[in-house]
Write a structure and sequence with these properties.
The longest helix has 17 residues, at 106-122. The protein has one domain (22-139): Cytidine Deaminase, domain 2, CATH 3.40.140.10. The chain is 27% helix and 35% strand. The N and C termini lie far apart (30 Å). Strand 6 (125-133) and strand 7 form a beta hairpin. It has a five-stranded mixed sheet, with helices on both faces. A two-stranded antiparallel sheet has the order 1-2. It is an alpha+beta fold and 146 residues long. Helix 2 (76-85) packs parallel to helix 3 (106-122). The protein is built from three helices and seven strands, in the order E-E-H-E-E-H-E-H-E-E.
Length: 146
Amino acid sequence: MNDYNLVSEGDGFEIFEVVPKKVTNGENAAGIFRTKCGENINKQEVFMVMALDGASEIIYTKTIFIGTLNQSLVHPREVFSDAIRERAAGVIIAHNHPSGTLEASRADITITARLKESGKLLGIELLDHIIITENGYYSFNDEGIL
């Protein structure tokens, strides 16, 4: 069973998109995060987390932090607090680059390493870190960095 998001409405019509319950790859996760980011994708950084169970089914997807034009500050406690409560097996984190660049910054690499280590201590695996823009995505997992 899938969930549906209202995409647009007007003239008596409503258009919905299917939100998958299971994450199968980086592209699939990036699409979900891009939808969640919405209109902010080109305005300011939005940092999000998706918690998954052992079968890669989505428990929740939520925004953790909305930053400035080009900066987002996040702490492991915000990423993992609900994941612990919901007994998640793993998390995927994502944020957008309003500039449109799909290159991981030094700060992106540093926070990924920090969250990976924190997840190990908690028994919740960091499965991927995805950078999204309006036109594409960059997956740390797909690139072999995680």
